[in-house]
Design a protein that fits this description.
By secondary structure, the chain is of the alpha/beta class. A hairpin with a 4-residue loop joins strand 1 and strand 2. Among the domains are: 114 residues, 2-Layer Sandwich (Pantoate--beta-alanine Ligase, Chain: A,domain 2); 99 residues, Orthogonal Bundle (Ribonucleotide Reductase Protein R1, domain 1), CATH 1.10.40.60. The chain has a 5-stranded antiparallel β-sheet.
């Protein structure tokens, strides 16, 4: 006996299959759209945080400039008047006036913040003003082999001097080193400490140091004790131990008296009596050292939920105003 088949049953099954496929396709479209919306939301949020970090960095730089512009007023204040200085603004201005380094962090309710570091740009020895004897002191302190000193100093002199005359052991643009490198000597002063890397007989080992090996002793990098800013005198209130040791007249016991004088009478760092007030009090040569800086480095880092942006500027202090003479900015790479 043949089974009875409803004439519309096959059509209903096909319609069901089509409906299921339509639902699947619609689900994929909706899911894809939702994913794109979510991804766009994440990207927009990340971009907004990066933009906010950049704006915070700019705000921090302006905050630092305001601190520098208040130095004269801070000097006139009595120490007890700074007790109400809750955010440390006037204390930072007082420290800047004394040539001391200082740091300020301002946080906001929305989670953003900026940190401003103010320090002397003259807490190093000016490359463009060092004479041969001074270079010898530095290279000896850094443990650079003495057999390399003359070639380094003469090649640096040829890089800086305005002519094309070869110094003894020096090198001008026609030297194979520069011809292979594809650039001529500058014939002008250095604009950055890193520029030393472009000069013949100078390299990363000299600038950043090199550990000892079977063939040579350790070389202590000199990057941190050099600068291209200022009149050649070093700010004694911010000079590091290594920097001071590069001066032939300084020994460990003399350094101790300098660092003690920086802490003031209470012998504590970061308090309102910090700072050397008189070079003669620590036996420092006024021809080599000073206590205030003409060029100041301001580093501002804006932070918005881990997104960081940094601005580094060198400011020239003129009367009551500060003028930007160097500027570098960009996002901070996360480790």
């Amino acid at each position: 006996m043949e089974k009875y088949k409803h004439p519309d049953l096959g059509k209903e099954g096909a319609a069901l299959v089509v409906a299921l496929w339509v639902l699947i396709i619609l689900s994929l479209i909706v899911g894809s759209f939702a994913f794109e919306v979510n991804l766009e939301s994440i990207l927009v949020s990340h971009k907004r945080k990066k933009w906010k970090a950049e704006m915070l960095a700019h705000s921090g730089l302006e905050y630092g400039k305001a601190i520098l512009d208040q130095q004269a007023q801070a000097k006139q204040l009595e120490i007890e008047d700074l007790d109400e200085d809750k955010d440390g603004f006037m204390q930072a201005a007082l420290f800047a006036k004394r040539g001391l380094s200082n740091s300020s962090t301002i946080e906001f309710d929305d989670g953003g913040k900026f940190t401003v570091n103010i320090e002397s740009a003259e807490a190093g020895r000016n490359i463009n003003m060092l004479n041969r004897q001074q270079w010898l002191e530095i290279l000896e302190m850094a443990n650079v082999p003495s057999t390399e000193w003359d070639a380094m100093i003469y090649c640096l002199a040829d890089w800086i001097d305005p002519n094309d005359n070869h110094g003894l052991n020096g090198a001008e643009s026609d030297d194979p080193f520069y011809e292979d490198a594809g650039y001529p000597v500058k014939n002008g002063p250095l604009d950055s400490v890193e520029e030393l890397l472009l000069i013949k007989n100078w390299g990363p080992d000299i600038l950043y140091g090199k550990p000892a090996d079977d063939e040579s002793d350790e070389i202590f990098g000199i990057y941190d004790i050099l600068t291209v800013w200022g009149d050649g005198k070093v700010n004694l209130n911010t000079a590091s131990e290594d920097l001071l040791l590069s001066f032939a007249e300084y020994e460990d016991w003399e350094l101790e008296s300098v660092f003690e004088a920086r802490m003031g009478e209470d012998m504590e760092d970061g308090t309102l009596d910090d700072g050397i007030r008189n070079l003669a009090a620590v036996g420092a040569d006024a021809n080599k050292f000073k206590l205030q800086s003409t060029f100041v480095k301001v580093t501002s880092v804006g932070d918005s939920f881990g997104n960081q942006y940094q601005i580094e500027a060198i400011l020239l202090l003129k009367n009551k105003d500060s003028v930007v003479v160097y500027w570098n900015e960009g996002p901070v790479k996360q480790n």
